[in-house]
Amino acid sequence: MEQFIIGNIVITYDGREITFSDNGHQNFRFYLKPDALADLMDYFNSLIKTYTQKRNAFRIPLNNSFGLSVLLRYGDKSCSVKPLNLSLTGILIEFEGDDVYGMAKGDIVELSIELGDKSENMAGKIVRCNHPQYGIFFPETIVDGEVQAPEFLLNITSNLEKRWLRERISE
How far is Cα 113 from Cα 24, in angstroms, rounded to an integer? Predict the structure, then answer.
């Protein structure tokens, strides 16, 4: 059985059928002739290679927020959001209610990121919308094609990565 993950979509292929699953919540199956399925799986495999190369930095999973809090401002509205992962170049957030403000891919938002007694504001560009989750890229972290994150973000990601590793080791 082959399995690919593209964003939050899990694609499973058992040789006869393809199942699409959105974070394990909903399944969608479809059937094609076996040779067409194989071609489609080859296509998905090519997407994976392209998709994984887009990442500029390691994403720290925040199953436990480790004390990281994020306030999102969009226009004249603001609300706290749940951070799902963070990297030197972006963050994946989730709204925990009906606080979504009609944001769309390409929109610019302001984020206040806080860990302990340290806080910083960062501008972000929405690069992925999958309600209630939004992927936000920090444009200021890429300079001349290289990752050059601000000191604050370097410190936070280093701190969170250590906490994440400690949690994994203790499992």
Answer: 29
Rounded distance, CA 143 to CA 145, Å?
5
Tell me how far apart the alpha carbons of residues 90 and 100 are, in angstroms, rounded to a whole number. 19
Contact of 58 with 25, CB cutoff 8 Å: no
User: Tokens at residue 114, please?
Assistant: 């806080």
Q: Residue 81's closest CA among 104, 66, 57, 98?
A: 98
Handedness of CA 24, 26, 27, 28 (dihedral sign): negative
d(Cα 111, Cα 137) in Å, to the nearest integer? Answer: 11
**Whether 112 contacts 100, CB under 8 Å:** no
Domains of the chain in start order, with CATH, are: 2-53 (no CATH), 60-170 (2.40.10.430)
Residues paired with 30 in a beta bridge: 18
**Cβ(109)–Cβ(72) under 8 Å?**
yes
Q: Give the tens place of pLDDT for each residue, 43-96.
A: 666 655 444 444 456 788 887 778 899 999 998 889 999 999 999 999 999 988
Mean pLDDT of the chain: 80
Q: Is 154 exposed, middle or buried (0-12, 13-18, 19+ CB in 10 A)?
A: middle
